[in-house]
Amino acid sequence: MALVVALAPGLVGLVRKVKARLLRKRGAPVLQPYATLLRLMRKEVVLAENASWLFRVVPYLVFASTWVAAALVPTFATDLQFSWSADLIAIVALLGFGRFFLALAGMDVGTSFGGIGSSREMLIATLAEPAMLLIVFALSLVAGSTQLSDVAHALAQPVVGLRVSLGMALVALVIVALAENARIPVDNPATHLELTMVHEAMVLEYSGRHLAMIELASALKLMLYLSLIASVFLPWGLAGPDGGLVAVVAGIGLWLVKIAAGGALLAAFEVSIAKMRVFRVPNLLGIALMLALLGTILLFVSRSL
Amino acid sequence: MNLIQLAFSLSVLLLALAVVAVLMRGRGGVSGAVYSLSAIASGLLGIAGVAFLLRAGAPQLMTLPIGLPWLGMHLRLDVLSAFFLIVIGLGGALNAIYGLGYGRHEEDRARVLPFYPSFLAAMTLVVLADDAFSFLLSWELMSLLSWALVLSHHRKDEARQAGVVYLIMAAFGTMSLLLAFGLLAREGGYGFEAMRAGAGVRDTAVTVVVILLMLLGAGSKAGIVPLHVWLPLAHPAAPSHVSALMSGIMTKVAIYGFVRVTFDLLAPAPWWMAMVVMAIGAVTAVMGVLYAMMQHDLKRLLAYHTVENIGIIFIGLGLAMGFRSNGMETAGALAMTAALFHVLNHSLFKSLLFMGAGSVLTATGTRDMDRMGGLIHRLPVTSLLFLIGAVAISALPPFNGFVSEWLTFQAILLSPELPQWGLKILTPGVGGMLALAAALAAACFVKVYGVVFLGRPRAPEAASAVEVDRWSQGAMAALALFCLALGIMPGLVIDALQPIALALTSGLLPAQASDPWMTIAPIGAGRASYNGLLVLLFIAASAMMAAWLIHRLAARGVRRAPAWDCGFEMDDPTTQYSAASFAQPIRRTLGSIVFRARETVHMPPPGDNRPAHLEVTLLDPVWDSFYGRIHGAVAWLADRANVLQFLTIRRYLSIVFALLVFLLLVLTLWN
């Protein structure tokens, strides 16, 4: 659990670094997000005059719910201590919990930027959630469970092999992950001043330690989705319930490689595509929904596809 | 005295209370007395239900020599009625406690007081009834009494219009029920026992027609699309604790009617009926929440959310029907448990939300969300409790709404084992619609909470609002606690529901209470499990730890300053996002399909300093394409028939004569 939090800002730093290098810039060091977070935590908080108690509680709630969700995703081993306390549906709902409160916080000060961010964030979530559920459906059809560690374990079996339906679910999950993490082409994480911004507009009024919590939570969320994709679609190397120390160390090493590769791919994808207009995002998420539904129906037609 | 006698005497007591309220009207203290006695009586009803359900004994019967001469009045208390007694008792008691405080603001108390306890009594009698006659009588009583409550603000046009629409829909619903029971009674008689016995010999066609009629009759009361039109008019028109009762409880009594007939009195329906019910449920869920998203009237928005939740319940019931007709007992039990759990949950958080809306209405005097804002500073208790209700209805963990939707999803995930292709293909689609409805509900409650309680006051009423009385706060706090308790201890509810699942679907889920830490794993631990308690503890612990560490080790300073807002000056509260602007992204993407939403900007010509206007037009597809046409047809017929009003007596006599001859001819040809 602590490992995920410790590494999440590093992942963000890595993505930024790769992006900068691809654009032939030098880029900030990979460890820069840590320095930013520390600096933010030490600064005093500037609160808007009419901010309520909710505004001050939300950063911690968002961080906590994202952390709990991230802790439930298998990273390097399948036998997580508390994996039975929530299945994949509940993990999605936990992320929804964080988003609900963050969107409320965006409305709290009563600025138009907060409102625009909140309303668009909820639109994107509205469209991403059905797609996510259908992905869960397809995965549970193959694995016979919605318990993530069981899904990862089942998909690691050689009998599963390559399947068209899983490929579709992967593409759908990648689209959902891009949307949920406010990445290009859905949203631009690098700017505060663009009319189509979503996530960054919502947290515009935050400062100091509150902002640090929210930044950490969004780094965690990126980590969560990359781990999720890695553990479900690339489940090799996950230490099983009876794996010894060697298996665990190998699992950690392999997980780091997977995450780093995922981060690099994300950066490469982001520099090669332009941001979309907000009202074209539904089309993108509609593709995810259709792919997930097709994957599910393919599994109905034949369990081996 | 056994429990059914207790329940019946309590409902008689509630009816008597209504008479007392009429006789004593105008005296001081009547209001308090009526509400406290109603609270006690319905609390006892709820306790009786709990006692019966936990013991899960044999059904208790009672026959009274009133009603039709050869039939009498049959009452029966079984596990299903006991569960709905709990829903009625709990909701009735807490709403009465809320009414103790809220009722004082009512301008015309004599128009509410007698009907409140008698409405509760009528609903109790519906779930206790064991023959068609007493069922229909109590049902009609329930409709009429709630109609009277809708008209308690009868001087408002809005309430009068709601009353007319409600009366028409209620009459139509009861007529469908009458026909359904008429068909059911062919095999024996009007007692439910005879109908149950006739289940085996009944034609499949009759079964299907009865279910369709129940969908029309009970569905119109519950508010399935397209029969929901009266609901968003009538529920908000009543005083808020009555709105809570109608939205939270009466719609559940309608669900009871559907469950009783479909699962208890009828043999398993053909599998494609399950598809019909599920499709209706899915459409109702999504349409309900989309309507809600477009609303600016707080109470009407909540009423549309009732439509959504009824849809979710019908999805569960449809799944249960599908599993039952294929003999998949455990899966059926899961779907039925999910649906009934959602019945209980919705009755709790919808009451809570309507009470919160009532408090806001008392505090600001308006239901228009665009005149509110910033109430979190003025109504600290109400705003916290409303937040809990909003999180619960948005199906977010660790509250109760999530558990029942999670169970529904788990039931949906069992659908691949169904043999029929139609059900197999439909169910994932329904699951997607359910997820869409849940996500839209979250968006909608961000809108409600953000516009009403957060931000800056948009009107002077909102800026000077004052917190409501202790009774109201207490009732809301109790409901919020229930929402949390059922969310973190769902295993207890699931176990308590099993006798009902066994009776209706002949399946059972494994016992949950013995699992460690209140984990629920309804279909075996390897398949899916969820633990609300641990989720709550984890979130609370890590949030507090993070906050403590940061305050301890890093900074704790706070400075108040004007909002940043990218450097814009923004003194005018109308620059905030309003209810309409929050809905804009969803209105453009989904609303343009469903409601054919159009936005037009009216710009004044250059040099003119009037403000520009944004006009939004929405078309209600149900009103326009369905009721609009019916209305047109009725008006056309009425115009044609109008001629008959102005005839001479000779013509009338000849018409009567011709009709008589015609009927006699028909009769002779018939034989």
Characterize this entry briefly.
Helix content of chain A is 68%, strand content 1%.
SSE layout:
The complex is a heterodimer of chains A (305) and B (671).
Chain A: H1 2-22, H2 32-42, E1 45-48, H3 53-71, H4 88-108, H5 112-143, H6 148-155, H7 164-180, H8 199-202, H9 208-233, H10 245-271, H11 281-301
Helix pairs in contact in A: 1-9, 1-10, 2-9, 3-4, 3-9, 4-5, 5-6, 5-7, 5-11, 7-9, 7-11, 9-10
Chain B: H1 3-23, H2 30-55, E1 60-64, E2 73-77, H3 79-102, H4 115-128, H5 132-150, H6 157-184, H7 192-197, H8 204-222, H9 231-237, H10 240-265, H11 271-293, H12 298-325, H13 329-364, H14 375-378, H15 380-393, H16 400-413, H17 421-452, H18 460-463, H19 470-488, H20 490-505, H21 532-553, E3 558-561, H22 579-594, E4 598-602, E5 613-617, H23 621-641, H24 649-670
Helix pairs in contact in B: 1-2, 1-4, 2-3, 3-4, 3-10, 3-13, 3-19, 4-5, 4-10, 5-6, 5-10, 6-8, 6-9, 8-10, 9-10, 9-12, 10-12, 10-13, 11-12, 11-17, 12-13, 12-16, 12-17, 13-15, 13-16, 13-19, 13-20, 15-17, 15-19, 16-19
Keywords:
heterodimer; A: 305 residues; mainly alpha; globular; B: 671 residues; two-stranded antiparallel ribbon; two-stranded antiparallel sheet; 69% helix; 4% strand
Question: Please, could you describe this protein's structure?
Answer:
Chain A has 305 residues and is mainly α. Chain A has one domain. Chain A has helices at residues 2-22, 32-42, 53-71, 88-108, 112-143, 148-155, 164-180, 199-202, 208-233, 245-271, 281-301; one strand at residues 45-48. The longest helix of chain A is centred in the middle third of the chain and has 32 residues, at 112-143. The radius of gyration of chain A is 19 Å and the shape is globular. Chain A starts with a helix and ends with a helix. Chain B is mostly helical. Among the domains of chain B are: 268-544, no CATH class; 627-670. Chain B has helices at 3-23, 30-55, 79-102, 115-128, 132-150, 157-184, 192-197, 204-222, 231-237, 240-265, 271-293, 298-325, 329-364, 375-378, 380-393, 400-413, 421-452, 460-463, 470-488, 490-505, 532-553, 579-594, 621-641, 649-670, and strands at 60-64, 73-77, 558-561, 598-602, 613-617. In chain B, the strands form 2 sheets. A two-stranded antiparallel sheet of chain B has the order 1-2. In chain B, strands 4-5 form a two-stranded antiparallel ribbon. In chain B, helix 4 (115-128) packs parallel to helix 10, helix 10 runs parallel beside helix 12 (298-325) and helix 12 packs antiparallel against helix 17 (421-452). The longest helix of chain B is centred in the middle third of the chain and has 36 residues, at 329-364. The radius of gyration of chain B is 26 Å and the shape is globular. The N and C termini of chain B lie far apart (55 Å). Strand 1 (45-48) of chain A pairs parallel with strand 3 of chain B.
